């Protein structure tokens, strides 16, 4: 039971982060789509009332699908096209990973928050919209998640440096324990804070996919799609 406690705490923190992401995505969706300033307190209340289950399910599914997608991309890059057997295996694995992303992706939190959908259905509907408007290349090249992760690591490292230095000066015997806990606290606090920009980017993409002709959008996404198409050609 003691071995399961850290994992349980980690899952709890992911649920808290994703609950914040659903709340913020609801607020930013209303702003991008309708120009309405949604009350954060009302949005949070609605998330707890209607979408907490989706936040929990998404916390479990997104971790799995993102890890599979990352490993599939790494396998494809390593295999290349020199070995036919390796190439076919990598292609098959990439297909499975792409299919899994359809059922669980972080952009699904937007529809889960706005329309109170179940997370799997929200993910499927969102991904289908991305495919319909040709937004998949932009989504695949999005670095928001990596940026948020690096910010969390940087925050944890700063907390470790400060906490570890102070402990070395006062209580050397506890330096290791304090450094580890300081890193975890700093990492998760930064990840909670970065839920805001991550939710804003997700809401921006989803609102664009729903209505690319929305006058609130400039030419940033269409230009990016054209650039990616030229690179792939």
TrEMBL record:
Membrane among the record's keywords?
A: yes
What GO molecular function annotation could you give as one example from this UniProt entry?
transmembrane transporter activity
Source organism superkingdom: Eukaryota
Q: Which family does it belong to?
A: Belongs to the CTL (choline transporter-like) family.
* Keyword Membrane belongs to the record: yes
GO cellular component, alphabetical, reads: plasma membrane
Protein name, per record: Choline transporter-like protein
What compartments host this protein? Cell membrane; Membrane
Cite the InterPro entries for this sequence: Choline_transptr-like
State the UniProt keywords alphabetically.
Membrane, Transmembrane, Transmembrane helix
Q: What is the role of the protein in this entry?
A: Choline transporter.
Query: Main localisation, per the record?
Result: membrane
Annotated membrane topology = Multi-pass membrane protein
């Amino acid at each position: 039971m003691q071995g399961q406690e850290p994992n349980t705490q980690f899952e709890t923190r992911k649920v808290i982060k994703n609950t914040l992401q659903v709340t913020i995505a609801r607020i930013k969706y209303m702003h991008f789509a309708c120009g309405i300033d949604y009350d954060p307190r009302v949005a949070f209340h609605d998330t707890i009332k209607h979408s907490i289950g989706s936040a929990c399910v998404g916390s479990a599914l997104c971790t799995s699908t993102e890890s599979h997608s990352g490993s599939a991309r790494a396998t494809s890059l390593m295999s290349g096209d020199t070995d036919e057997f390796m190439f076919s295996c990598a292609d098959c694995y990439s297909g499975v990973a792409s299919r899994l992303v359809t059922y669980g992706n972080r952009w699904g939190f937007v529809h889960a928050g706005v329309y109170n959908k179940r997370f799997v259905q929200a993910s499927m509907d969102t991904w289908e919209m991305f495919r319909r408007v040709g937004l998949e290349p932009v989504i695949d090249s999005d670095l928001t998640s990596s940026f948020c992760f690096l910010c969390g690591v940087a925050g944890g490292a700063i907390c470790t440096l400060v906490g570890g230095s102070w402990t070395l000066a006062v209580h050397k015997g506890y330096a290791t324990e304090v450094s580890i806990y300081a890193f975890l606290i700093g990492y998760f606090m930064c990840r909670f804070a970065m839920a805001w920009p991550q939710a804003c980017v997700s809401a921006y993409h989803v609102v664009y996919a729903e209505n690319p002709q929305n006058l609130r959008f400039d030419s940033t996404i269409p230009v990016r799609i054209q650039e990616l198409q030229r690179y792939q050609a």
